[in-house]
């Protein structure tokens, strides 16, 4: 109910065009990259620690083994040329050639096995790290308080659990190990080149800084371009999400054309950004090749001169060119890795920002569990602000005795749901306190408090699973018989039995296949099963037709019997029998008493009742 108000406010005052473009932009999700941050880096890599100790030595061993075998092959080739194929003195030796070929084949096999094992273990490490990170994030998000979600669109929370975690996946599965391989390989090649011929080695390496610079800079541009593509795609996803959720409203207001226009605009943006990124990507290959070509040019010019002057053999020149060929790949990849790290930094910053967010509603240090309650409730001069300076409740004092039923009545926005939110401690009071059986609810554990309060809302949430699972959500250890007894008590049994699979019928997420009233009955059964001492019904009967409501009045009596209950209802017939009817207006209690007393008082309540009857 409030989401609509808030999003409307967000659009207020902006021009139509900017409004459309801004709709699916979540500023903090659009951060492209961050400067390298060691603290963040260490925190991120701490996730690798538990697995690294077991598997990293093996991965390292495989990396070194693979590199040694890879780098030995060109050297053996040079021996084959210089000693077996075209020796300076003596005749060619076929036997030596066979032996060398055999060794080279064996080395290739070792290289293949070591790379297979290395990939296997790095994938295991990477996947476990991502699993841990994702579950830490989800565990934490579940604990965050309502005011955290009030500030953020659901899409932005979703993006962090999916996109941001996924963008780290590549870093952990390939990036880290590739970095190791590349460093080991580069170091190995540099040593070998300098050992074979240090003058030629240094000459060829002149191109390294050029290559590194080109690779890093261009990659940076390419990365930004691809980030842009991802961002545009993420906006499409958010729009798609909203469109599907709101398809009924869209069709009812025949806004399909307008919606299509939004979509088209975003789709076109995404295409354009893709074209741009892809064009840049295509530039990368030729530039790297030209720089590599420069190195090869220096090698052959200088190499030919050295062969003529007797400082180098043909075989060594071939080996040299082989090593140089293997040189560009790691340098190129290191540039890529650097960019990948910067992207990962931005993602991890967003993930840790969530993980570091303290739930504003949490147990005090030393909070004790609330003992089994009787259900006496006291609101002591409660003031509450959702937003600073705007009081939703302006000094509410209310005494409720155990077993009493309290009805909250008042105009839209008068503060009824807020009272209930405070009682369940979804928010803490700004001033004043709420006590249950004399315990300030801020002094007891949240879990012990909420487990003794049952809530039935108008918008009943049905989870994907069977009907039985959905009722059992109230108390997970309930037996099948208890589930069915609860359903019978609230008159839900008959309609459940008419479903194709009875209690085992699978309902889709949000229960779209069930009518609103049926969903409501399920949530009654769920609440009854939980058997809480305090029960809250927030517009819980609003979706049930009057006839069904009359039928379930008895069920409601069963549900409410012996419990302290709060009932919020616009339909006043529902609350006639409440022990105390509390009339709210702009966050203040204006009247309270029984139906009879309030009718005699001829104040706000009797006005509301008369208005409803007149309407009928
Ligand atoms: N999450 C929120 N953030 C900011 N303001 C809020 C939020 N929820 C409610 N409000 C404001 O607090 C006031 C009381 O809202 P509340 O939901 O308690 O009213 P209500 O009496 O339950 O209304 P309704 O009958 O429409 O459900 C309203 O002015 C509303 O705009």
At the fourth level of CATH, the homologous superfamily of the largest domain is ABC transporter type 1, transmembrane domain
Rg to the nearest angstrom? 35 Å
Count helical runs.
Answer: 21
- Give the rounded overall mean pLDDT: 82
Judging by the overall fold, what is the CATH architecture of the largest domain? Up-down Bundle
Largest sheet: 6 strands, mixed
Tally of strands: 12
GO molecular function, one term: ATP binding
Protein name: ABC transporter ATP-binding protein YknV
Domain ABC transmembrane type-1: 58-341
InterPro entries: AAA+_ATPase, ABC1_TM_dom, ABC1_TM_sf, ABC_transporter-like_ATP-bd, P-loop_NTPase, Type_1_exporter
Summarize, please.
The protein is α/β, with parallel strands linked by helices. It is 64% helix and 11% strand. The chain has helices at residues 2-11, 16-22, 38-46, 49-85, 94-143, 146-151, 154-196, 198-205, 207-245, 247-252, 256-308, 314-356, 416-423, 446-450, 467-472, 480-489, 493-498, 516-530, 546-560, 595-601, 604-615; strands spanning 377-387, 390-400, 405-410, 431-436, 439-440, 453-457, 465-466, 506-507, 534-538, 564-568, 580-585, 588-593.
Textual characterization of the structure:
The chain is an alpha/beta fold and 616 residues long. The protein is built from 21 helices and twelve strands. The protein folds into two domains: 36-356, Up-down Bundle (ABC transporter transmembrane region fold), CATH 1.20.1560; 366-446 and 566-616, Rossmann fold (3-Layer(aba) Sandwich), CATH 3.40.50.300. It has a six-stranded mixed beta sheet, with helices on both faces. A four-stranded antiparallel beta sheet has the order 2-1-4-5, covered by helices on one side. Strands 7-8 form a two-stranded antiparallel sheet. Strand 9, helix 19 (546-560) and strand 10 (564-568) form a beta-alpha-beta unit. The radius of gyration is 35 Å and the shape is elongated. Mean pLDDT is 82; it is low at 1-18.
């Amino acid at each position: 109910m409030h989401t609509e108000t808030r999003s409307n406010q967000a659009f207020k005052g902006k021009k139509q065009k900017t409004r459309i473009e801004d709709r699916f932009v979540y500023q903090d999700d659009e951060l492209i990259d961050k400067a390298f941050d060691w603290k963040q880096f260490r925190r991120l890599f701490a996730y690798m620690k538990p697995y690294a100790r077991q598997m990293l030595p093996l991965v390292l061993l495989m990396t070194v083994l693979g590199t040694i075998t890879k780098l030995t092959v060109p050297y053996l080739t040079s021996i084959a040329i210089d000693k077996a194929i075209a020796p300076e003195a003596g005749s060619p030796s076929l036997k030596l050639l066979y032996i060398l070929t055999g060794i080279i084949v064996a080395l290739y096999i070792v290289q293949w096995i070591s790379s297979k094992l290395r990939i296997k273990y790095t994938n295991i490490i990477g996947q476990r790290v991502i699993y841990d990170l994702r579950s830490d994030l989800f565990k934490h998000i579940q604990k965050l308080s309502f005011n955290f979600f009030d500030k953020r669109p659901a899409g932005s929370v979703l993006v962090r659990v999916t996109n941001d975690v996924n963008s780290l996946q590549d870093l952990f599965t390939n990036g880290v190990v590739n970095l190791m391989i590349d460093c080991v390989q580069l170091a190995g090649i540099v040593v070998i080149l300098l050992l074979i011929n240090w003058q030629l080695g240094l000459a060829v390496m002149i191109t390294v800084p050029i290559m590194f610079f080109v690779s890093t800079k261009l990659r940076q541009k390419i990365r930004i371009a691809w980030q842009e593509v991802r961002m545009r795609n993420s906006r499409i996803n958010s729009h798609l999400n909203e469109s599907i959720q709101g398809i009924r409203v869209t069709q009812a207001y025949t806004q399909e054309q307008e919606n299509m226009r939004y979509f088209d605009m975003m789709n076109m943006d995404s295409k354009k950004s893709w074209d741009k990124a892809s064009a840049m990507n295509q530039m990368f290959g030729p530039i790297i090749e030209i720089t590599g070509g420069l190195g090869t040019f220096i090698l052959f010019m200088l190499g030919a001169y050295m062969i003529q002057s007797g400082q180098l053999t043909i075989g060594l020149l071939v080996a040299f060119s082989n090593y140089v060929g293997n040189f560009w790949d790691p340098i190129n990849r290191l540039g890529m890795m650097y960019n990948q790290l910067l992207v990962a930094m931005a993602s991890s910053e967003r993930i840790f920002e969530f993980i570091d967010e303290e739930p504003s509603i949490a147990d005090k240090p030393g909070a004790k569990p609330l003992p089994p309650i009787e259900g006496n409730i006291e609101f002591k001069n409660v003031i509450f602000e959702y937003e600073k300076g705007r009081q939703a409740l302006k000094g509410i004092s209310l005494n409720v005795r155990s077993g009493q039923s309290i009805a909250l009545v008042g105009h839209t926005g008068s503060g009824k749901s807020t009272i209930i939110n405070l009682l369940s401690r979804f928010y803490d009071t700004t001033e004043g306190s709420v006590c249950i059986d004399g315990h300030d609810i801020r002094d007891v554990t949240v879990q012990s408090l909420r487990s003794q309060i049952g809530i039935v809302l108008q918008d009943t949430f049905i989870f994907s699973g069977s009907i039985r699972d959905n009722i059992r959500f109230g108390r997970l250890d309930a037996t099948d018989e208890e589930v069915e007894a609860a359903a019978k008590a609230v008159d839900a049994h008959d309609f459940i039995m008419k479903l194709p699979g009875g209690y085992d019928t699978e309902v889709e997420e949000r229960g779209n296949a069930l009518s609103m009233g049926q969903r409501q009955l399920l949530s009654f059964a769920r609440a009854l099963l939980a058997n809480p001492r305090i029960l809250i019904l927030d517009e819980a009967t609003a979706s049930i037709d009057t006839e069904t409501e009359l039928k379930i009045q008895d069920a409601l009596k069963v549900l409410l019997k012996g419990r302290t209950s709060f009932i919020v209802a616009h339909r006043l017939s529902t609350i006639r029998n409440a022990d105390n009817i509390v009339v709210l207006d702009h966050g203040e209690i204006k009247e309270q008493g029984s139906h009879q007393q309030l009718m005699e008082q001829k104040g706000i309540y009797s006005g509301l009742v008369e208005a409803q009857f007149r309407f009928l």
